[in-house]
Write a structure and sequence with these properties.
By secondary structure, this protein is an alpha/beta fold. 22% of the residues lie in helices and 21% in strands. The strands form two sheets. The protein has a seven-stranded mixed beta sheet with strand order 6-5-4-3-2-1-14, with helices on one face. Helix 5 (221-229) packs parallel to helix 7 (255-264) and helix 7 packs across helix 8 (287-299). The protein is globular, with a radius of gyration of 18 Å. Residues 1-5 have low confidence and may be disordered.
């Protein structure tokens, strides 16, 4: 279970200070330009059995195809990232792929239990997918939530597999999934702060290696992961929800720190996630790609090394 040095703690006074400053400044401001999605490559996604590919659905929701498997990270398809449907952060952009457009999902991988990553209607819909429920690979401590909330179909319960930090599981397609700690925290109800785990995933295949960061503040963790499992062919790294720094720095990297995370984890290429969908913090939804481009230019790193995708866009390897 989490220990104080792992789980980020924030005081109620700090939260109130941030919310007051945010309301006073009328933040976040709207995007300066529309965020335009692309039509998803459905024929490719449904036929692909060999080529590694990443499809950004929105926020941290990502479809990874590798080794013949379809893996879905942090699926959120609802309009609101909240415990109630009538309040909370509303989706600015529709999902780049709808639930109905997804190829058959072999496994769902959850990084942590915050509402913008764990969405009850979405995981329940996935459990009912045609052909049978996917495996649900989840942080230790969230398995009870999944057992309570996932439906039983024709008497069959979905397979829920909790992982501890630095543990692993395998998938039939010669894939090994490692769950590794990063600096963040968990909370679902207000009474369970840091009582379940959170983390990142290294997904390894003989021909392709991938890392999904989840949410993270900057720490030595990516360097340790890079030494342990790298180098990676590709990584999905959070780049959004980082302002104001005095409050967000310990829990969310900014784009410059995200570039350093890419270097630390030894990724040949990265794509940015956790932006452009839900207005969670003070920066405009379209600010992360602007700050990312500046960070790459300052460091002399080619823009192609760390890309941002449009909602629904697929990157093929």
């Amino acid at each position: 279970m989490p220990t104080p040095e792992h789980g980020i703690e924030t005081s109620g006074k700090a939260v109130l200070r941030w919310m007051w400053q945010r309301a006073r400044a009328r933040l976040p401001r709207p995007p300066a330009a529309p965020l335009r999605p692309v039509a998803p490559a459905l024929d490719f996604l449904h036929a692909n059995r060999s080529d590694p590919s990443l499809t950004w659905i929105g926020h941290s929701s990502l479809l990874l195809q590798m080794g013949g498997a379809n893996l879905l990270f942090d699926p959120v398809f609802s309009r609101v990232a909240s415990p109630v449907r009538f309040a909370g952060p509303r989706r600015h952009q529709p999902p780049g792929l709808t639930l109905e457009q997804l190829p058959p999902i072999d496994a769902v991988l959850l990084s942590h239990n915050h509402y913008d990553h764990l969405d009850r209607p979405s995981v329940r819909a996935l459990a009912r997918q045609s052909g049978g429920a996917p495996r649900f690979i989840v942080p230790r401590g969230t398995e009870q939530w999944f057992a309570r909330n996932l439906p039983t179909t024709r008497g069959v319960r979905p397979h829920i597999e909790p992982l501890d930090w630095c543990s692993e599981t395998t998938l039939p397609q010669s894939l090994t999934v490692h769950f590794e700690p990063v600096q963040h925290w968990s909370n679902r109800s207000g009474f369970d702060r840091n009582k379940s785990l959170w983390g990142s995933y290294a997904v390894l295949h003989p021909s392709f290696r991938f890392w999904f960061s989840g949410d993270l503040g900057y720490s030595p963790a990516p360097s340790r992961i890079g030494e342990k499992h790298g180098p990676f062919d590709a990584a999905a790294i959070a780049i959004g929800a980082y302002e104001p720094r005095w409050f967000m720095q310990s829990q969310h990297v900014n784009p410059d720190e995200a570039v350093q995370v890419m270097l630390d984890v030894r990724a040949k290429q990265a794509i940015g996630v956790h932006w452009g969908t839900f207005a969670l913090t003070d920066e405009p939804l379209d600010q992360p790609p602007i700050d990312l481009a500046e960070a790459l230019a300052t460091r002399g790193i080619a823009a192609e090394r760390f890309r941002v995708l449009r909602h629904g866009e697929t990157l093929r390897y």
